[in-house]
Structures are given as C-alpha cells and as structure tokens.
Design a protein that fits this description.
alpha+beta, 5-stranded mixed beta sheet
C-alpha cells in the first residue's frame, strides 16, 4: 500500500503498491513520476526552496512557505494521485 501524508508544509509518500513485481509496478511508477515531477515543478516553476528526500518507496517534500504557483502544482499533483487511487485502490491518504 502507498501511504500519502499531506500537511500545510509537507508531503510524504511512502510504501509500495505491490500490484506487480518490484521494478515492474505501474502504480508505483505513476506515483513516483508524478511526485518527482512535482518536486521539479516546485523548484523550477514555482521557484520554491524545498527540503527533499528521495529513496525507493519513500519521498518527502517540505517547504517553509508556498506561493500560489506552488499551490496550483500541489493541487494538480493531488488530482493525478486521486485519479490513480480511483483506478487502483492501493493508496491511503492520511
């Protein structure tokens, strides 16, 4: 199961979907791709300072403040995650 924790200053994604063998799991790949793209967007498009930790099965993004562009990127990321969760109910929101 993939667990997602969202707070006003933090986003944490952890776990594995376990819908296919490790390295072949399209759900994990989709969540990872969206989340890694979010990091890049927050840094390069929203020009936000971030603390990020990226490891297999564990991505954490933290910020001190978020601007309107950053909020829009996080909201768009969340829509993508919700779409994945609707198709593959292996995502738990905290």
């Amino acid at each position: 199961m993939i667990t997602i924790l969202i707070t006003p200053n933090k986003l944490h994604v952890s776990g594995h979907a376990n819908t296919a063998p490790q390295g072949s799991d399209i759900v994990c790949s989709a969540v990872s791709a969206l989340t890694l793209t979010l990091i890049r967007g927050l840094k390069e498009i929203a020009q936000m300072a971030l603390f990020e930790s990226v490891a297999a099965g564990n991505i954490c993004i933290e910020w001190q403040s978020i601007n309107d562009t950053g909020k829009a990127l996080v909201d768009t990321w969340f829509l993508g995650i919700c779409g994945i969760a609707a198709e593959y109910p292996v995502i738990e929101f905290l």
